[in-house]
Every structure is written in C-alpha cells, then in structure tokens.
C-alpha cells in the first residue's frame, strides 16, 4: 500500500484528482424493499432519520423513478489520506466554493471523493489540479 499522507500540504500536493465516468444522484429511500434492491448499485449509503440515503448511478435512479434533479460527477482524490488527517476536505471544498461550485464530499477508507454538479465537473477538476500544482511548488 502507498504511503499515507498526514499533513494538509502533503494531502493536497498528492491528491491527483481524477474525474470518474458517469453521473450520480443522492436519493433518500424509505421503502425497505426498494432500498435492499438498490444496495447492489449504490456507491455509498448513510442511514438518516428521514430514510436511507443512497448515492446511485443516474441511470439506476431514473429507472427507479427517483428524483434526479441534481446529477453529479465524482472527482476522486487519489491520495492515501490519513483518516485523522486535517485540511484536505476543507481545502477542496473552499477552492470549489470560492469559484461558485457546490461540493458534496464523501470520505471513504482509502480516498476522498468530491461530488460536484455535472455541468461544473470539468471546471472543478481543473481548479483542483491547479490547487494540487500550487501545493507541489510550495516548499
């Protein structure tokens, strides 16, 4: 396994953002049978008081008749960041927010993933690559 980055600078300098193919939506499911059926396609889940939140491929959500008002693209940050690392999520979200791009961060065991509006994905990717490049040139 690769080295795990702990400092904000090291995480940002090594993040190597990559735009994942496809579009995704966040959905909230109250029907247990529907939730069970969709689990196999979900990128992630979170159990909230209002229902089970699922992160689904757009085509799967459309086939289920779920709300698809906000299609997102996923930018994976390909750095092995420490689970107790501080600063990567804040730096990414801030850079995007300063440029008017909404961002939903999803942290997993190995990588962080920024879900951004589909129409802003290429611009978001360029901004994050610029952020990484700036960190790499800093001492």
Describe this structure in words.
This protein is an alpha+beta fold. The chain folds into two domains: 1-22 and 72-139, VC0802-like (2-Layer Sandwich); 24-70, no CATH class. Helix content is 33%, strand content 27%. The model has no long low-confidence stretch (mean pLDDT 90).
Strand content: 25-35%
As laid out across the biggest beta sheet, the strand order is: 1-5-7-6
Helix content estimate: 25-40%
How many strand elements? Answer: 7
In CATH terms, the superfamily of the largest domain is VC0802-like
Main β-sheet: number of strands, strand sense, barrel status?
4 strands, antiparallel
Here the CATH topology of the largest domain equals VC0802-like
| Cα shape | globular
CATH class category of the largest domain: Alpha Beta
- Per CATH, the architecture of the largest domain is 2-Layer Sandwich
State the low-pLDDT regions, or none: none
Q: List the secondary-structure elements in sequence, H or E.
A: HEEHEEHEHEEH
Distance between the termini: 26 Å
The tally of domains stands at: 2
Q: In DSSP terms, counting alpha (H) and pi (I) runs of 4 or more, how many helices?
A: 5
Q: What is the arithmetic mean of pLDDT?
A: 90
* Overall SS class: alpha+beta
Radius of gyration: 16 Å
């Amino acid at each position: 396994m690769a080295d795990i980055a702990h400092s904000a600078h090291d995480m940002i300098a090594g993040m190597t953002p990559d735009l994942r193919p496809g579009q995704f939506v966040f959905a909230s499911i109250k029907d247990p049978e529907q939730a069970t059926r969709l689990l196999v396609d979900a990128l992630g889940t979170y159990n909230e008081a209002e229902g089970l939140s699922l992160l689904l491929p757009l085509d799967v959500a459309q086939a289920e008749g779920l709300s698809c008002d906000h299609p997102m693209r996923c930018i994976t940050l390909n750095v092995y960041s420490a689970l107790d690392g501080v600063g990567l999520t804040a730096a990414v979200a801030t850079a995007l927010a300063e440029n008017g791009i909404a961002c939903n961060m999803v942290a997993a065991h190995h990588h962080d993933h920024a879900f951004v509006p589909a129409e802003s994905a290429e611009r978001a990717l360029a901004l994050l690559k610029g952020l990484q490049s700036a960190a790499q040139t800093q001492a």
